[in-house]
Amino acid sequence: MRLACFDVDGTLTDGRLGFDTAGRESKSFHVHDGQGLVLLRRFGIEVAFVTARSSTVVEQRAAELRIREVHTAVPDKLATVQDIAARLGLSMDQVSFMGDDLPDLRIMANVGLSAAPADAHPWVAERVHWRSRAGGGAGAVREFCDLLLEAQGHVEGLLADLVRPAGVRAEGTA
């Protein structure tokens, strides 16, 4: 996989929408999911958020994580992901998508790897390639990121870098 795309509400969040008295929207994002997304980017996997809802909160979270491909108020998620893949010179077989509800099914049927949180709608859950143990907004995205990193053989090197004593250089560095 070279491009990992994610629905937002119900996947990166628990699907709940909060509003303050001024009508401003709030969402909660799990920090573990954010770390997983950062790791994907570190190992050359492009990340995209694709959501049907318009949300400045989503744009803000993407900016914090330095995710460039942020698409809100999207009427056709499949067309959007196809456009991203084409710009990056990727086939749809090199694209993964994680979503949780019926509007995500069309895109899931057209990517190389589809995934869903544990609490995805049952009709979605039974049609994906992989399903997390965690629910949306509760670490499901991190599980999927870890799966992608493991499948591409990045975990051992990552862990070795993280536990190397201070002052010791990685093999092959100056």
From TrEMBL:
Substrate binds at residue 9. Catalyzes the hydrolysis of 3-deoxy-D-manno-octulosonate 8-phosphate (KDO 8-P) to 3-deoxy-D-manno-octulosonate (KDO) and inorganic phosphate. NCBIfam families: KdsC-phosphatas. It is an enzyme of class 3 (hydrolase). Its cofactor is Mg(2+). Its EC number is 3.1.3.45. It holds the Pfam family Hydrolase_3. It catalyses: 3-deoxy-alpha-D-manno-2-octulosonate-8-phosphate + H2O = 3-deoxy-alpha-D-manno-oct-2-ulosonate + phosphate. Belongs to the KdsC family. It comes from Lysobacter defluvii IMMIB APB-9 = DSM 18482. CDD domains: HAD_KDO-like. One of its GO terms (biological process) is lipopolysaccharide biosynthetic process. Mg(2+) binds at residues 7, 100. Keywords: Hydrolase, Lipopolysaccharide biosynthesis, Magnesium, Metal-binding. This is 3-deoxy-D-manno-octulosonate 8-phosphate phosphatase KdsC. GO terms for molecular function: 3-deoxy-manno-octulosonate-8-phosphatase activity; metal ion binding; N-acylneuraminate cytidylyltransferase activity. Homotetramer. The lineage of its organism: Bacteria, Pseudomonadati, Pseudomonadota, Gammaproteobacteria, Lysobacterales.
